Automatic annotation (TrEMBL):
Pfam families: ABC2_membrane, ABC2_membrane_7, ABC_tran, PDR_CDR. It is found in: Membrane. InterPro entries: AAA+_ATPase (IPR003593), ABC2_TM (IPR013525), ABC_transporter-like_ATP-bd (IPR003439), ABC_transporter-like_CS (IPR017871), ABCG_dom (IPR043926), ABCG_PDR_2 (IPR034003), P-loop_NTPase (IPR027417), PDR_CDR_ABC (IPR010929). GO terms for molecular function: ABC-type transporter activity; ATP binding; ATP hydrolysis activity. This is P-loop containing nucleoside triphosphate hydrolase protein. GO terms for cellular component: membrane. The keyword Nucleotide-binding applies.
Amino acid sequence: MPLGPCRPVTCKAEKIRILNELDGFLECGQLLLVLGRPGSGCSTLLKTLAGEMAALTLDPKSVIHYGDIPFPSMHKQYRGKCIYCAEHDIHFPELTVNETLQFAAKAREEECAARLEPEDPMETSDSRCELVVSSLNLTSASNTKIGNAVQRGVSGGEKRRATLGEVLLSNASVQCWDNSIRGMDSATAYTVMKVFRANVTEHRIAAVASLYQASQAVFDLFDCIILLYDGEQIFFGTTHVAVGYFTHLGFDLPPRTSVADYLTALTNPAEARRFVREGVVSVPQTKMDFVRLWRTSSERHELLQRIGRSRKSEAQGVAFRVQSKQYSNYTTSLRSQVTLCINRCYLRTINSISIPIATVAGNAILALIIGGLFLNLDETAASVTVRSNLLFISILLNGFMSGAEVFAIWDQRPIVEKHARYALYHPMAESIAALLCDLPVKLFSSVLFNVILYLMANLRRSVAAFFTYWIFAFVCHVTLSTWFRSAGSFCKTLNQLTLPLGIWHLALITYSGYVIPVQYMRNWLHWIRYLNPMTYAFESMIINEFEGRKFPCREFIPAGPAYDHSPLNSRVCAQIGTSASVNETYVDGSIYLHRGLGFEADNLWRNLGVLLVMMFGYFAIYLLASEFILASAPGANVLRFPPNSIAANLHKLDEENQSSGNPIRQAIPINKVQTPGNLQTAPGVLYWRDLSYDIPASRSQRQTSLLTNSSGLVEPGTLTALMGATGAGKTTLLDVLAGRVSTGTISGQIAYQGMPYIDTFRRRIGFVQQQDIHLSTSTVREALHFSAMMRWEEGTLLEKTEYVEEVIRILDMAHYADAMIGTIGQGLNVEQLRRLSIGVELVAKPDLLFLDEPTSGLDSQTAWSVCSLLQDLARHGQAIICTLHQPSVSLFEMFDKLLLIQKGGETIYYGDIGHQAKTVTEYFRRRVDIGDSLGSTENPADWIFNITSIPGIDWSQSWKESAESSVLHDRLGQLSELPPSDSTPRLSPSAQSIFAIPLLSQIHTLIRRMFTSYWRTPQYLWCNLLLSACSAALISVSCPSTGNGIQGLKTQLFAVFLFCTLFSNISHQLIPNFVKHRELFETREGRSRIYSWRAFITSILFVEAFWMTVASSLAFVLFYFPMGFHNGRSGDTVLAWLYTWAFFLLTSTLSHLLIAGLEHAEAAANYGFLLFYLCLIFCGVLVPKSQLSRFWIFLYRVSPLTYVVAGLLAVGMSDKLVHCTESELLILQAPDPMTCGDYLASYLASAGGRLLNPDATAGCQFCPISDTTSFLATLNIKYSSRWEYLGYIFVFVAFNIGMTFMVYWVSRAPNMVKRNKPAP
C-alpha cells in the first residue's frame, strides 16, 4: 500500500494545519508504528489513512493510494477494507463480550467462507470468535456485560481488547489502530500485539498503529516507523535503521531505554538534550531543524524513489484486488444483515428486560385508570362529548407512547455508525431490525392498553367496531414511532432535535381535529392537518364510534316541572355542541360527525390507506436518514476557547506562529520539575489487613470475590506502585481503600492515622481516576480553581489562586490554561486531559494521593515528568499509590515499593523494589527455581509479568509462606495496636467534617460554575427558549379568534390545555441535561467529597429556575395577549404571568423529580409521559369535576395542572359577556299564546342563559351561556379563588423540590456498602 505525499490536513471550521508533507510506503503484511507526542497528529494521520475525514479536509494535492486504488475509490467502493479503530471504546453495554464478538464474526462469516480454498477445513463464526476470545485472553470475561460509565461491566483493559477483537474479526486489508494497547499491562499488551502481528502476516494486512510508551518487545514486532513532530514528519523507515539515522545526527540511545521512548523523546527539546553524544557540537534543536534534515536525507530520497516505482507498477494493486475479489462495501446481503441485527436486538432486550416490562406495565396501569374514569359509559346523548374526549385521550396516548424512543436512538447511533464504517452492516439494517424487534412489545402493549380501555369504557360493543378501533390505534402508534425515529436520525445533534420535535409534538395535538374543529382551522395553517397521522386515526375512530348510532336525550332545554308536557318543537336536547335538532329526542351520531367536528363518514377506510402510506413513508425516511445522515462526529482535537476571550485572541497568534514554523510551546526541562513550595502533607500511615471485597454475581445469589485477603500499607514519603494483570482488581482495590464503592460487602480492616475508616476521610484523598471526566464547558484554569475553592479547608482566595498557578506551571499547562475542556475531538487531547485530571487533585493538597493509571495515554517524556513530580511529592512527605500498566525501566525504578496482585485481588508481592529492581526480582528468583534471570537491558516490570504469568505456579500461596509476608503482617500488627494519639496526630475539628467548606459556600460556588456552563452551551439555551416561545406562538396563531361565543370559549379553554402540553416537550430537554451533570457528580466530584449531593441538587434546580423564568416570560407575552386573555386589569396580568412562571417551575422541578432516582433518561421520559397525561386528563378540561365520581376526585385535586388551568382561565376569562353566534343559538318555539320571555322565564331564573328576543312569539333565540363566569362555574373555576390556585401550584413546586431531595437521597446518595468486622 504505497502512500504518496500527504499534504496539509486541516479542520474545516478553523482551518488549522495539523499534518504537513508526509510521505510513506507500506506493503501488505507489514506493521507501521506511528510515533510522536500526543498532539503531534498521530490520530489524525490514522484517521486520514482510514478515510475517517469527519471535520477534516484533505488537501487536493495530497496523493494516497492503496495499491492501484485511489483514495476516493477505496473509501467509496471498498469501505470495509480500510478501517480505523479509535482510542475510545464504544459498545452496546447490555451485551456480553462474547455476544459482541460473535456478532462481528457472523457479519463476516460469508466473506471468510468465500476466501477458503476447497481443501481447507470449514471455519464457522463461532470457532473464529472462540479463537479471538482465547487469543486475547478474554475467556474469563466472555460472559460479562461490557457495560459503560453508568452500568458496571468488564475492566477498561478487557473492554479495549473487545474493541480490538472486533477489528480482528473484520478482515480488513488496511487497519489503523489508535493507541491500541492503552489500559493493558505490559504482558497483556505484548500478547495482544503478537496476535496482531501474526494476523497481519498470515492475512497480508497493511496495519498502522500509534502507541505511547511501547516496550522494546512490542516495538520489535513492527516493521516500519514514522516519527511525527508537531504535525511534521522527521523520519520514515524500517525499525532497525531508525536508531542509526538519529545516531548519525548526534543522539545516542541510552542503555535500558526502549527505542520507542528514545525516538519520541527526541521530539521534545528538553529531553532530547539528554541524548546528545558527548563532544557533538551541532545537533538539530527545533522542529524545523529535524524537518530540514529529513527532507534532504538519503533515507527520504530512497523512500520517494520507492513510492515512484510502486506508482508505475500495478503489482501491489493487482494483489490487493485479488485479495478483495470484486469487493463491495458489505459482504452479506441486506436480509442477512437484518437477521443478524434482529438477533442482537433480541439479546439486548433480554439483557435489559426490565425496560419493556416497565413500559407494558405502565401502559396497562394507565389504561386501568382511564378506563375506571370513563367506566361503563351509558348510551345517551350525555355520553357523546364524553366519548369524544375519551377517544381523543386514547389517540394521544397511543400516538405518543413511543416518544422516548428518540433517546434510545441517540444512545446507539455512535455504535451503529462505527459498525457501518467497518462495513459490518448497513445502518438501515439496524433501523429495520430495531423497529421489527420493538414490534412485539408495541403489539402486546397496544393490545393490553386498548382492550382494557375499550371494554371498561363501554365503547361501541361489536367485534368489528373493536378491531376497527384497535387497527387505527395500533397503526397510528407505529406511524408516529417511525416519525420519531426518522426525526431522531435526521438531526446531527440531540439539541437540534428537541426544538422541531417539541413544536411538531404540539402541532400534532393542535391539528388532530378535536382541539380545533376542522371548520375553525386557519386556512393558511390548514395544511398541517394533512401531514398529521393523528388526524386520520382520530377521524376514523370517531366515525367508528358514532356513525349510524342514535343517542337518546334524557335532558332537555328548557327543563323543569313547568316544561314536562311541552311539545317537541319547544324543547331541544340539552347537550351543547352535539348538533342536536329541534323536534328530535336523540342525537344523531352521523350529524354530530359532520356538523360538530367536520368529519366525513366516507373517510373511514380511506384514512387507513393514508396512514399506511405515511407509516411506510416515514419508515423510508428513517432508513434513508440513518443510512446517509451521520451524527456530528468528533474531528481533530483542536483547542477551543470561550468566545471573545483574551485567550482566544492570543491563540490565533499561536496558530500563526505554528504555521510559520515556530514552536508553539516548550516543555518544562526535566531538571526543572518542581513541587509546590507550600505543599502540606500529613504524616499518617494508611494500612489495610485481610481486606476482601465481594459483590453479588448476576442472576444468582452467590458472591464474586474481587479482592481476597489483601494486606498492605502506604507510608508518607513513599511512592508505591500497584501492578497486576488486566482485570486483577487494581482499580477495585483503590476504590475500596478510598471508600468509593457503593455495592457489595467489604471485610477486613482499613485504618489511617491509627483510626478506623470514617466517611470524612474520603475528601482527604486525591483520587485521579482512569477516566478523564470533567465539565466540558469549563476552562482548565477554572477547573483547577474550582477544585481549590471547594477542597481547601483554610486559605485566602489569593493563596488558592497562587497555588493553582503553581500547579499549572508544574504540569506545563500554561499554553492551554484558558482553553475549554470540551469533548472527544472538540477540546483537549488525551495527554492534556490526563494532566488536568492530575492537576485537579494536586490543587486539593490531599493527605493521600491515589492515581489510577496516571501515565496511560501519555508519551514517555510526559509520563516521566508526571512520575518525577510524584517522586518529588513523595520526598516532601506525600503518601502516594498509583497503578501502572506498561512502565519503562526509568519509570519503574522511580517507585519505592511494589504491590503486585493477581486475578481475584490476591497479593503475590508487597515490598521494596530496590536499586535497579534487584530486591523484587531476587524475591521471585528465590521463591521459585525458574532458571531465568533479568538481562542487563531487560525491563524488570516486563520480566515480572512474564514470570508471574507462567502457568502451574501458585504465586499467592508462595507469598503467604514467604518471610516478606510475615514482616508485613508484623508491621501491620504493630500499627493496629498503637492508639491513635501515639501513632499520629489527631485530626483537627475542621478536618473531621465531611466536606471542606460549608454547604452554603458549596452552593454559591456551584451556582456560579453552572451559570457559566449554561451560558457556554448556547444550543441548549436557545433550544429551550425557542421551544417555549415558538410553542406559545403556535398556539396563539392556531387558535382562531371567534369572539366571545361558545366556540370562542372552547378555543380559549383548549388553548390553555395546549399550553399545558409544553410540559412534555420541555421535560425532554431538561432530563438529558440533568443526566449529563449528574454523571460528572457521581463518577468523580461526589465520590471525592468535593461537594454534597444537596449542593448539586440545589444548584441545578436554581439555575434551571432562572432560565425557566426567562422562558416563561417569553411564552407569556406570546400566549396571553394574542389569545385575548388581557382584560385591562394590570393585577390580573401580573397574576397570569405568575401562573405561567409557576407552571414552568412546576415543569422543571417535576422533571428533576422524575430523573432523580432513575438511571436512564429514556425511563424517566416514559414515566414522565404516564404522569403527565394523568395530570392532563384529570385537570378538568376533558373531564370536568362534575362528571367525576368521588373515587376520582382525589386525582383531580392532586393534579397540579388543575390549578394551572383554573388560574389562567380565572384571570383571563372572568366577567365577560358571551355572545352566541348564529350557529350556536338554540331556536325554540314558544307555545301559543306565550312570548319567548314568558315561556323561558322560569328556566332562565334557575339555569341561566340569555334570551335574545324575549318579546317574540316564535323562533325564540336562546344562548345557553350568558357570561364567562357561568361557563367557568361548569368547570368548578372561581375568580375569587385565583390566589388560592396560585398557592396550590407553589405547594406542588415545593413538594417536587422536597421529593427530589428525598428520592435522590434514598435511591442514590447513601453508601450501600456492607462493612463486616474482621474475624478475631
